[in-house]
């Protein structure tokens, strides 16, 4: 597809007859739960109820750094209606937890290390009582000076027993003496983006007769959360069960484990079901954010604009605890040069602890921050040489077979030049008319303060890359079971539907493989085998691959009796539109007739090829696969007041294979819109470690009115042979590329350097 056919195909699927629904891979099968969600009957955790329910509340630290002198719970315990008050003294198992590294206390005991850290939790018979009891817990603090500048963390007193340095990666690739005809340098800062899920965290804990507990949560990694909870509760994992409820939006690890753990502790203490629904403020304070990042870059290039060497320093602010900062740093260092062929690279990367809010996995972590920096450097090279910015990029793009600075060969399809060409050649949008009727097109919106004569249009580019699945030796595996009974297929897989469309994909895979139209996907809980976390598009690969393998095993069971009867192999039989036919036309029957009331089932696993950790010089085959995206941004900037309007974003993406056109288009558009938020508005401010305005009024998310025209101009379907179905990650790549493209366009419009995201109005003002 070389134009807007991708979007058209997503919207206009061929009709299959009156009353029929498209099915199988390559069609826009609608989600099974779409009606329940639109009607408001879908079961989210915040809607759950149980007999004898108690309500929970958590007391959180008002300070980013303080020593706890004493905790007095007496007044809270004596309040009518209060059933339990717990602190660090009431944790029977492991007192610490963490996704990447267990270094985060369930409840702070001696020191608080960030604003909002949990101190105590309360269970009461009414939510207001629980909140008042939590406020009645008296904590005496000795307030300490917070360390909030990550550059000062290296010399500061240790904030944690493990020290302030979480990880250092010194990447060395090529000749350190290499030099170019010109050198460009830059210092860049990326702000703190919050995932800002549609629904704040909520959960229900129900004690079990065997002394265990069941947790009903919007978990995106239920088995890992179960194991963490079991360790905290001092229970065997089989005595803790997590049932996944509806996930109200997820662009990262959905649940704050520090939110989950008190729930089960209170249920075990009281013997009653306990429910906790976080306020939006608690949600902002508790869960992980995108790493604020400081980046220093020096690019050496020859007289033609080809990059000779990249030198960079990358500093990630992890906040108080390690979480997944090590993985984010590995991605940032590995992709520090971007999707460009760079023969020499010397990158220093650090992740450090501070007393700032916690950082962790957010879509495109690490890769997004460096993309903003290396694309700014490409603009600087173009400006210095007087070349078109797109042309400079074209002279440097990588291709399949090139080598990353980590020494890993890019063996997957890497059609970067094709992507850039597609967005570069796509027609530009028309200029707005200078009439009162069209003033709403100006930056600032209707009744905006800007004047048409102050508006400048800019065009910029961003090319991003992301890795798929985990990295550095992570064991990526998923298990799925497919059952067929009474003409209905059921999929059992612990892959959580977070909005990425896995349940729809699982139905399509089974429909395609078995010819059975009615396919159900069972609810997820930890009684099923693990499938891993719902991030980095891993469920499309490993969980979709497991479903496909299980469905093919069932297909063999279905076809073997027929093949034996007619003296042929199962490979000579095919299933199409619910009918089984042989290559020669001798056999033709329906799937329902072949089943004849039989119950068939199979269980299978999918595990991609292994990877390895980066070594002491940042070298190693650390990634299973990569995906690429090119974005061209067109912006209008009022150079007098610094307001920016994103007019259009043209997107070309390397998708491997389109499995569901409508779903794919929606994921790209959502990723691009999230990128616009990173570029222009989203920044969770925390001066001296104190989160300011932790709500959706103070934190400026882009709305539907802020979303630009998004043109999906090209979807390159060059299948990755090692991936099931050949498909690649979809949603993260546009998040990575679009902020860089918007910043590039603002540079083009203003001539300013634009070295910070989100872009502040003063950075877009041009003075005479």
Approximately how much helix is present in the residues?
Answer: 10-25%
Report the total helices. Answer: 16
Q: What is the residue-averaged pLDDT?
A: 90
The amount of beta strand, in percent, is 25-35%
How many E strands?
Answer: 29
Biggest sheet overview: 7 strands, mixed
Radius of gyration from CA coordinates: 27 Å
Strands in their spatial order, largest beta sheet: 3-7-1-14-11-12-13
What gap, in angstroms, lies between the N and C termini?
45 Å
Category by helix and strand content: alpha+beta
Task: Tell the overall outline.
Answer: globular
Low-confidence stretches: 1-19
Using brief descriptors, characterize the structure shown.
disordered N terminus; 6-stranded mixed β-sheet; 7-stranded mixed β-sheet; alpha+beta; 768 residues; 29 strands
SSE blueprint:
Layout: H1 5-11, H2 34-39, E1 54-60, E2 66-72, H3 74-77, E3 82-86, E4 96-97, E5 104-105, E6 111-112, E7 118-124, H4 127-136, E8 138-143, E9 165-173, E10 182-190, E11 202-207, E12 213-217, H5 222-233, E13 240-244, H6 257-270, E14 274-277, H7 280-286, E15 293-301, E16 307-317, H8 325-334, E17 344-352, H9 367-385, H10 389-394, H11 416-425, E18 455-471, E19 478-485, E20 488-493, H12 502-514, E21 519-521, H13 538-566, E22 573-576, E23 579-582, E24 588-590, H14 591-595, E25 600-606, E26 623-638, E27 644-654, H15 661-680, E28 709-716, H16 732-750, E29 756-757
Parallel strand pairs: 1-14, 10-29, 12-13, 16-17, 20-21, 27-28
Antiparallel strand pairs: 1-7, 2-6, 2-8, 3-7, 4-5, 9-17, 10-15, 11-12, 11-14, 15-16, 18-26, 19-20, 19-25, 22-23, 23-24, 26-27
């Amino acid at each position: 597809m070389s134009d807007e056919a991708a979007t058209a195909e997503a919207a206009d699927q061929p009709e299959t007859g009156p009353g029929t629904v498209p099915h199988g891979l390559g069609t826009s099968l609608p989600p099974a739960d779409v009606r329940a969600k639109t009607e408001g009957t879908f079961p989210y955790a915040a809607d759950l109820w149980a007999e004898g329910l108690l309500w929970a509340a958590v007391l959180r630290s008002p300070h980013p750094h303080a020593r706890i002198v004493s905790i007095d719970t007496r007044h809270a315990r004596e309040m009518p209606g209060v059933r339990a008050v717990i602190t660090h003294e009431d944790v029977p198992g492991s007192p610490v937890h963490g996704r990447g590294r267990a270094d985060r206390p369930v409840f702070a005991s001696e020191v608080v290390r960030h604003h909002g850290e949990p101190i105590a939790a309360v269970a009461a018979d009414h939510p207001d009582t629980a909140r008042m009891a939590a406020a009645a817990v008296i904590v005496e603090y000795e307030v300490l000076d917070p360390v909030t500048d990550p550059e000062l963390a290296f010399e500061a007193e240790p904030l944690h027993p493990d020290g302030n340095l979480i990880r250092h990666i010194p990447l060395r690739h090529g000749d350190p003496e290499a030099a170019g005809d010109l050198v460009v340098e830059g210092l860049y800062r990326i702000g703190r983006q919050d995932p800002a899920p549609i629904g704040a965290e909520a959960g229900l804990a129900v004690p079990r007769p065997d002394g265990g507990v069941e947790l009903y949560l919007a978990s995106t990694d239920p088995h890992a959360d179960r194991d963490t909870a079991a360790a905290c509760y001092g229970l065997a994992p089989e005595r803790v069960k997590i049932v996944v409820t509806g996930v109200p939006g997820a662009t990262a690890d959905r649940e704050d484990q520090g939110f989950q753990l008190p729930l089960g502790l209170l249920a075990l203490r009281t013997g009653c079901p306990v429910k906790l629904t976080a306020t939006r403020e608690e949600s902002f304070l508790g869960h992980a954010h995108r790493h604020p990042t400081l980046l220093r870059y020096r690019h050496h290039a020859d007289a033609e604009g080809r990059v000779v060497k990249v030198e960079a320093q990358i500093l990630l602010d992890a906040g108080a605890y390690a979480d997944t900062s090590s993985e984010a740093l590995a991605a940032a260092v590995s992709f520090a040069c971007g999707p460009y062929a760079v023969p020499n690279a010397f990158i220093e990367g650090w992740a450090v602890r501070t007393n700032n809010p916690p950082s962790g996995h957010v879509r495109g972590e690490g890769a997004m921050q460096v993309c903003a920096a290396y694309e700014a450097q490409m603009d600087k090279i173009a400006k210095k040489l007087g070349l078109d910015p797109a042309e400079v990029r074209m002279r440097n793009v990588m291709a399949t077979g090139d080598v990353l600075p980590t020494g890993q060969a890019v063996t997957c399809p890497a059609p970067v030049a094709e992507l850039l060409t597609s967005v570069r050649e796509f027609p530009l949008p028309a200029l707005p008319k200078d009439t009162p009727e069209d003033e709403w097109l100006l930056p600032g919106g209707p009744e905006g303060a800007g004047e048409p004569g102050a508006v400048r249009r800019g065009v910029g580019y961003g090319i991003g890359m992301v890795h798929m699945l985990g990295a550095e030796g992570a064991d990526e595996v998923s298990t799925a079971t497919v059952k067929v009974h009474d003409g209905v297929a059921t999929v059992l897989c612990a892959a959580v539907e977070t909005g990425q469309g896995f349940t729809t994909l699982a139905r399509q895979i089974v429909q395609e493989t078995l010819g059975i139209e009615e396919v159900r996907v069972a609810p997820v809980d930890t009684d099923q085998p693990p499938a891993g976390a719902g991030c980095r598009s891993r469920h499309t690969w490993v969980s979709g691959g497991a479903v496909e393998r299980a469905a093919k095993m069932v297909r063999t069971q279905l076809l073997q009796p027929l093949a034996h009867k007619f003296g042929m192999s199962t490979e000579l039989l095919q299933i199409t539109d619910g009918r089984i036919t042989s290559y020669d036309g001798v056999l033709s029957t329906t799937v329902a007739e072949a089943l004849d009331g039989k119950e068939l089932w199979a269980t299978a696993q999918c595990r991609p090829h292994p990877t390895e950790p980066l070594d002491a010089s940042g070298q190693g085959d650390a990634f299973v696969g990569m995906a690429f995206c090119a974005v061209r941004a067109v912006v209008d900037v009022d150079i007098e007041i610094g307001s920016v309007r994103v007019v259009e974003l043209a997107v070309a993406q390397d998708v491997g294979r389109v499995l569901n056109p409508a779903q794919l288009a929606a994921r790209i558009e959502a990723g691009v819109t999230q990128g616009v938020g990173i570029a222009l508005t989203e920044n969770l401010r925390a001066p001296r470690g104190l989160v300011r305005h932790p709500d959706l009024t103070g934190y400026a998310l882009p709305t539907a009115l802020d979303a630009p025209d998004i043109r999906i101009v090209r979807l390159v379907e060059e299948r990755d042979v090692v991936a099931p179905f050949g498909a690649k990650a979809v949603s993260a790549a546009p998040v990575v590329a679009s902020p860089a493209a918007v910043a590039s366009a603002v540079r083009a419009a203003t001539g300013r350097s634009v070295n910070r995201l989100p872009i502040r109005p003063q950075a877009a003002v041009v003075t005479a």
